[in-house]
């Protein structure tokens, strides 16, 4: 016998398969069950395309009458790119609806559930809610802050180094971890580095996946003095690039780069450099909902210090580099006391090939 929980788990697993493809929309899965049998399933596959419920009801057809709908996010109540799912659910004939979590979108937030309740449908909210919120951590953050969800990722040796004193870093982590990082790039909208990394490593910041056409994130370069070399790899045509700079930047160079389709975002400066919170607000307006920060130490430190990291993904390689001048993942200003450390909570610790992957979330205060 399958339980409500089992069906909701199936809906969550269905939703997960579209990871990285639905931005700016959430990941949503729906399952319709009649007399213990799954008669309809649906996934929201892409923004602009039908919502999960639409696919599920199309599949279920007449079997929806008297059935139960399991959906990972509250059915929507608004006209967006698609019409409201709550109306569809209401008119489908289902008698019971289980919703994992309410939709944080201010245009919905409880209205979808209310429509169903008003129609006399038995509605329950909260089954596997924590899992459903985690599945859409990016979307919840977007809706509540109007900022991209920031993931800070780095790979370091067992003694906490990301490069030798000369800056050499190929490779710290093993092949499997590096493949995971390309998978991550494939899922996010934006990838950010500082100009220091561009000057030192000349990275491409594109997605390279074997046997699969990857999607390149928008490359975002923090460059307050517009030092970027005109032949830098990140300026090639393989992917879109945004340079974040200040009004102090050389207008002639800006004009030349604009001719090459490079987009500029201008931000004010604070004592630490470019005002990152202001930048995040602007990036969100440019459609960046999910941002991967891939360092250097100074950029990483600024994000951590300003409390702007939402998630840490850290690979630890079974190597010890040593060296007084080897480079650390988080640089920035020194602090005097342990009490001043930024605190995180480990969420998962797993082996990836020969490495370890730690996922951690910041702890406020
Ligand atoms: C659902 N089921 O599968 C999804 C929902 O522009 P639209 O019409 O696609 O609407 C996008 C909003 O709809 C999105 O911000 C979120 O609030 C909700 N997404 N709702 O009932 C789905 N993807
Ligand atoms: Zn909908």
TrEMBL record:
Its EC number is 3.5.4.26, 1.1.1.193. Pathway: Cofactor biosynthesis; riboflavin biosynthesis; 5-amino-6-(D-ribitylamino)uracil from GTP: step 3/4; Cofactor biosynthesis; riboflavin biosynthesis; 5-amino-6-(D-ribitylamino)uracil from GTP: step 2/4. The keyword Hydrolase applies. Its cofactor is Zn(2+). The active site is at residue 53. The keyword Hydrolase applies. SUPFAM superfamilies: Cytidine deaminase-like (SSF53927), Dihydrofolate reductase-like (SSF53597). Zn(2+) binds at residues 51, 76, 85. Substrate binds at residues 185, 205, 208, 294. One of its GO terms (biological process) is riboflavin biosynthetic process. Binds 1 zinc ion. InterPro entries: CMP_dCMP_dom, Cytidine_deaminase-like, DHFR-like_dom_sf, Eubact_RibD, RibD_C, RibDG_C, Riboflavin_Biosynth_HTPR. It holds the Pfam family dCMP_cyt_deam_1. CDD domains: Riboflavin_deaminase-reductase (cd01284). It catalyses: 5-amino-6-(5-phospho-D-ribitylamino)uracil + NADP(+) = 5-amino-6-(5-phospho-D-ribosylamino)uracil + NADPH + H(+); 2,5-diamino-6-hydroxy-4-(5-phosphoribosylamino)-pyrimidine + H2O + H(+) = 5-amino-6-(5-phospho-D-ribosylamino)uracil + NH4(+). NCBIfam families: eubact_ribD, ribD_Cterm. Converts 2,5-diamino-6-(ribosylamino)-4(3h)-pyrimidinone 5'-phosphate into 5-amino-6-(ribosylamino)-2,4(1h,3h)-pyrimidinedione 5'-phosphate. PANTHER family: 2,5-DIAMINO-6-RIBOSYLAMINO-4(3H)-PYRIMIDINONE 5'-PHOSPHATE REDUCTASE, DIHYDROFOLATE REDUCTASE FAMILY PROTEIN (AFU_ORTHOLOGUE AFUA_8G06820). This is Riboflavin biosynthesis protein RibD. It comes from Ureibacillus thermophilus. The lineage of its organism: Bacteria, Bacillati, Bacillota, Bacilli, Bacillales. The gene is ribD.
């Amino acid at each position: 016998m399958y339980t409500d929980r089992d069906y909701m788990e199936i809906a969550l697993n269905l939703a997960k398969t579209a990871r990285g493809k639905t931005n700016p929309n959430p990941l949503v899965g729906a399952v319709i069950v009649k007399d213990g049998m799954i008669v309809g399933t649906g996934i929201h596959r892409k923004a602009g395309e039908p919502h999960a419920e639409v696919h599920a009801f199309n599949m279920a057809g007449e079997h929806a009458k008297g059935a139960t709908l399991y959906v990972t996010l509250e059915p929507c109540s608004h006209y967006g790119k698609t019409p409201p799912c709550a109306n569809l659910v209401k008119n489908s004939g289902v008698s019971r609806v289980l919703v994992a979590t309410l939709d944080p979108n201010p245009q919905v937030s409880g209205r979808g559930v209310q429509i169903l309740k008003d129609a006399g449908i038995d509605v329950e909210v909260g089954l596997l809610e924590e899992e459903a919120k985690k599945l859409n951590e990016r979307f919840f953050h977007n809706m509540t802050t109007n900022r991209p969800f920031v993931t800070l990722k780095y790979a370091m040796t067992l003694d906490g180094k990301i490069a030798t004193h000369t800056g050499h870093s190929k490779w710290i982590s093993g092949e499997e971890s590096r493949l995971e990082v390309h998978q991550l790039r494939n899922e996010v909208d934006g990838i950010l580095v500082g100009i220091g990394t561009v000057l030192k490593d000349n990275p491409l910041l594109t997605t390279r996946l074997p046997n699969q056409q990857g999607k390149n994130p928008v490359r975002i370069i923090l460059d307050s003095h517009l030092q970027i070399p005109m032949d830098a790899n990140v300026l090639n045509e393989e992917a879109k690039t945004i340079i974040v700079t200040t009004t102090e930047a050389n207008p002639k160079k800006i004009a030349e780069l604009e001719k090459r389709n490079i987009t500029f975002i201008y931000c004010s400066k604070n004592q630490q450099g470019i005002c990152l919170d202001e930048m995040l607000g602007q990036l969100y307006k440019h459609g960046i909902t999910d941002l991967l920060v891939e360092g250097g130490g100074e950029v990483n430190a600024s994000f951590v210090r300003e409390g702007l990291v939402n998630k840490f993904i850290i690979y630890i390689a079974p190597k010890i580099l040593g060296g007084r001048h080897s480079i650390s993942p988080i640089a920035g200003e020194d602090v005097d006391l342990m009490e001043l450390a930024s605190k995180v909570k480990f969420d998962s610790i797993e082996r990836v090939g020969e490495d370890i992957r730690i996922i951690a979330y910041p702890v406020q205060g």
